[in-house]
């Protein structure tokens, strides 16, 4: 059976959901795990720079029509950037009774069957700040690295989409480095046995 990945919403609906502090709908008995801490700095800086640009253009450009066009383009760029950030924020990682659905920028990059998860532990790793699949290991970090290590019993395919095919990250891995805002909650959830399945309990341990 294919695990239910939840509902994927578009940019404009994502903006509305983000504004209301909600995420895209998920199936019953599922839990979301966000990975947004610290990710708002870059969009905020870009937004501030765009506002400054609008003001400067208004003061320096002598032609009204050009002032309006450039201002409109700046506003559109702000909206597009904000909506792209919203898509990522309203589509977090999701743990269902059957699988762990992992996302990057709102897109599903892997669906890991819970029966394939051997262990999950808290482990801080620094150095990798972008999604990678290398040496049998997949990493889905934020700008500070990863904070959860997951070991799998079987190879799982990871595909991180990108605007250009040559930028796409893909491959298979038997271990995952993951960043989430509440790593202890994720490890605890992965260590529990779903009520409706006779899965073995995963190892729960903290690095010393």
Label this structure with key terms.
alpha+beta, 31% strand, six-stranded mixed sheet, 31% helix, four-stranded antiparallel sheet, 4 helices
What characteristic shape results from the CA principal axes? elongated
- Mean pLDDT figure: 81
Helix/sheet category: alpha+beta
Spans of at least 5 consecutive residues with low confidence? 198-208
Give a written overview of the molecule:
- The protein has 208 residues and is of the alpha+beta class.
- Among the domains are: 40-87; 114-192, no CATH class.
- It is 31% helix and 31% strand.
- It is built from four helices and ten strands.
- It has helices at 11-19, 41-60, 64-90, 183-191, and strands spanning 31-33, 93-95, 99-104, 107-113, 117-125, 132-134, 137-140, 146-160, 169-178, 203-206.
- The strands form two sheets. The chain has a six-stranded mixed sheet with strand order 6-7-9-8-5-10, covered by helices on one side. The protein has a four-stranded antiparallel sheet with strand order 1-2-3-4, with helices on one face.
- Helix 2 runs antiparallel to helix 3 (64-90).
- It is elongated and about 65 Å long.
- Residues 198-208 have low confidence and may be disordered.
Task: Tell me the layout of helices and strands.
Blueprint: H1 11-19, E1 31-33, H2 41-60, H3 64-90, E2 93-95, E3 99-104, E4 107-113, E5 117-125, E6 132-134, E7 137-140, E8 146-160, E9 169-178, H4 183-191, E10 203-206
Parallel strand pairs: 5-10, 7-9
Antiparallel strand pairs: 1-2, 2-3, 3-4, 5-8, 6-7, 8-9
Helix pairs in contact: 1-3, 2-3
